[in-house]
Amino acid sequence: MARFILRRLIWLIPTIILVTFMVYATIRVGWDPLASYTRANPRASAEARDRFVKANGLYPGFSGVVRGYREWLWAFIQGPSNWPLSLKGNSPVWPVLKYSIANTLRLYGVAAVIGISIGISLGIAASRKPGSWLDTIINSTAFYLGAIPAFVSAVVLQLIFAVQLGWLPPSGVYPPGQRGFDLVEMIKHLILPVTVVVIQTVAQYSRYTRASVLDVSTADFLRTARAKGIPERTVLFKHSVRNAMIPVITLIAIDIGAVLGGLIITENIFNYPGLGVYFLTAINDGDTPKLLPFMVLVVVAVLIFNLIADVLYAILDPRIRLD
Amino acid sequence: MSESVLSLRDLRVDFKTPNGLVQAVRGVDLDVHPGEAVGIVGESGSGKSVTFLATMGLLPKSAQITGSAKVGGVELVGARRNVLNGIRGKRVAMIFQDPLSALNPVHRIGDQIVEMLDSHQSLTKRDAERRSVELLDIVGIPQPDQRARQYPHEFSGGMRQRVMIAMAIANDPEVLIADEPTTALDVTVQAQILDVISRIRDEMRTAVVMITHDLGVVARVADKVQVMYAGRVAERTDVSALFKHPTHPYTAGLLQSIPRSGLDRLQPIPGSPPNMLRPPEGCPFAPRCTYAEPKCTAVLPELRTVGTSMSACIRIDEIDLTPVPA
Amino acid sequence: MTDQLLPNVANNGGLDDPGGGLPTDVDAQQGLNVIGLSPTRLAWKRFWRHRGASVSAVILAVLVLVVIATPITARYGVNEQVRDIRDGNNVYLRPSALAWLGTDELGRDLYSRLLVGIRTSIIIGLASAILAVIIGTTVGAFAGLRGGRFDDLMMRVTDVFLAFPFLVAIIVVREFLGGVGFLEPIIGSKTSIRFIIVLFAIFGWMVVARLVRSQVLALKEREFVEAARAVGASNSRIVLTHLLPNAIGPIIVALTLAVIAAVVGESTLSFFGFGPQPGSNSTSLGSLVRGSGDAALAGNWHLVLFPCGALVLLAVCINFIGDGLRDAFDPKLDGGK
């Protein structure tokens, strides 16, 4: 196991370099940073534009892309103070990125804990008696909720609870103009976006858990367990759920890895300044110096959590041999 | 004769299906005495496994069970789950056909045996672990202390079946029900497993119910045989009598379909078992029986004594079923 | 199994469970004489027993008919105002006899625009799903049959891609494809329908490929494939005549899922301004949904309710159909006591 993890970790480095290079090249082809820079700074002098080209390594041709990537990567590794400045406002990227990461993690942390625990519990409850009224209610509710696109539920919730009823603030983390920490306001601003994410999470996890438990429910070893005369609760948790949780737990790991890509829909509708807002702002401004560190973060998170998912799978299921 | 440890009376099992009620078991009686080995023989679909899964309370909810199944005087049909759980694993244990899927892949072998011990005895953790290693030793698993820490996938099929037996005898049960324990195994391994079961029976005085479609297995392990067909008992007899004087045409048919040296014609029984959604009114075997007469299809035959055997063939006095000598 | 609105979804993605449909323990023990129906006919029967799926199939069929027949069913042109401004106000009208679902900011009939929008969305969904299935089936069958390095590579690449946040990936790839000049004559500009179809196919094929691969891996070991190989059939022949017909169930399910992903994806992209602009004489569900945030704030509820409702209806129906198909092709029994 240790050898497997070590080998995968060593492999992770070339993989990250390869994938980030592909991302870098993709962004270099897809955007014209200089044009964006000129648009954002219409009165920039020729020297300022040259500085921008140099700072961002915008060399022509494929070899230029490779060289640009090398220089960019080197600067990136050296730390945020060496990163190219955001082209809009010539400001450092890291403080905004850090702030966005914290906001997204807070939103997702709360939503994931609530959503995943509710989802898994409902899934197990539903799977106990397939076809019963409880199962039908849980599973069809999850089905309908899951079929509603996130932006629809976000807009509807915002419309009802923020605009019509005025119970909750429609957007942001704090009321406009507020400075400093305020737990009550923070919670009030979190409720609606968290609800949207929880709806999606509960719908996904309850169905996935139910399917997984049902998948196990026909297994012969459950019959063996019952033949032992152990209580049904033990059969359920030690045999049925214990085995059924293996794919669910790996799914959680993969989901966490993906969430650093931002809860784009929810955050943007509630104007919640997390990574999703960060990303769309960077895209719309054509702000490649801002976009690149974000993409690296996403790539690294996805790859690492994929590895974590594999390792978890091997820990939970002794049949999987890693070496 | 002593009190029977397992006794079934008019046990019936029906399955609710979208197409109607499937009558899988239609009134089975059985008595198993302490230390006795009874073979239950029949084709797949004869209801032989369902009978004992019903006894153990291991059938899905779509099964409706009526009649009586008592272990040591305790009624199991319709019993509350805690009554059931006090009996199964403790006084009656069961092993299954496919030892690969019968063990939970994510728990260690030792832990799965400890779980069996823990559910019926109060042992310290260390005692339970020591006992589980002992049990693995009893069923003939080499290096039992190391093997106890391994997972099911690290065991061969025969070794897994030994683990199942070790688990089954953990609480010194009065009855061991073995549901086709050798069907999924290689021929050489089959004999070893049967030896283990026979040894357990001799040493621990555990009664054995051996469910099988293989008359060879019956000959090797059992003293008494109950032949089942279409959810009914066709014949009940001693093993020696079964091979010499079968008292039901179905049994005779089974005997003739065993390949034997010196006998070049192998006669399979023509036709297939009846549809249990609508079982025939008379003798269920009549449509496939070479001796069938109109009276056979009129009324469902009951078991009656024929010499030392019990037979459900109404024509048994009129026909000669003695096997052709080799 | 009584009163079961939503039978279990055993194969909820990720849980590889190829095969299915084998006679189970209980069946064998009960001695059921299975009535001789072909697997396809059995699946068909089971599909129509699934209440949600059969109702959805009927709704969707009606919807498709109405949408195809827009020249007859639509009451106004896409850009036509319901009445001249001199005859009375025509913008933001509430639903009425004049405009069944009300009008938008330019006085156009929402009902007629919705029909055209649904048509565009269904075209996008179907075209990209079919494209994804063709690519995915080819790659997946090849990888599953050949195994080896190509298979490893494909699994790794799709692993990472599928774990990647979908919207991030699709928005970045969209910009990339839009930025490559020589691709434009082939796949159209960033805002064309053709472009969005290609975009969704690029992301959709991987799910299909993994599914087909796992099916092929499972079927490869089965006797009839061994038999075909023994008589010297070529790989491509085995795939076409033996493997694919047996994997058709999961492929069809994947197709429905790809359709729904594309329909919802188009709306989501449009909502944030990354969607297609279907031209002046057409519209898409996404374009209609796009303004819903602002419309909601202004109190024009019908501009939120109907486009979003249509989207949810489509999503629910296709999900149901996918569910019904999955159950039809992969039946499961209920558990033990």
Which labels suit this protein?
heterotrimer; A: 323 residues; mainly alpha; 13 helices; flat; C: 337 residues; globular; disordered N terminus
Structure write-up:
Chain A is mainly α. Chain A is built from 13 helices and no strands. In chain A, α5 crosses α8, α8 crosses α10 (232-259) and α9 packs antiparallel against α10. The longest helix of chain A is centred in the middle third of the chain and has 35 residues, at 94-128. Chain A starts with a helix and ends in a 7-residue tail after the last helix. The model of chain A has no long low-confidence stretch (mean pLDDT 88). With 326 residues, chain B is α/β, with parallel strands linked by helices. In chain B, strands 6-7-8-3-9-10-12-11 form an eight-stranded mixed sheet, sandwiched between helices. In chain C, α6 packs across α9. Chain C is mostly helical and 337 residues long. Helices cover 67% and strands 0% of the residues of chain C. Chain C has 14 helices and no strands. Chain C has helices at residues 25-30, 39-49, 51-68, 70-73, 110-146, 148-163, 166-179, 184-187, 193-220, 223-230, 235-271, 285-290, 292-298, 301-329. Chains in contact: A-B, A-C, B-C.
Major sheet details of chain C: none
**Average pLDDT taken over every residue of chain C:** 78
Shape of chain B: globular
State the helix count of chain C: 14
Mean pLDDT of chain B: 88
Q: Identify the overall geometry of chain C.
A: globular
* Share of residues in strands of chain C: under 5%
Oligomer: heterotrimer
Provide the β-strand percentage band of chain B. Answer: 15-25%
Report the sheet with the most strands of chain B, covering strand number, pairing sense and barrel closure.
8 strands, mixed
**Percentage of residues in helical conformation of chain B:** 25-40%
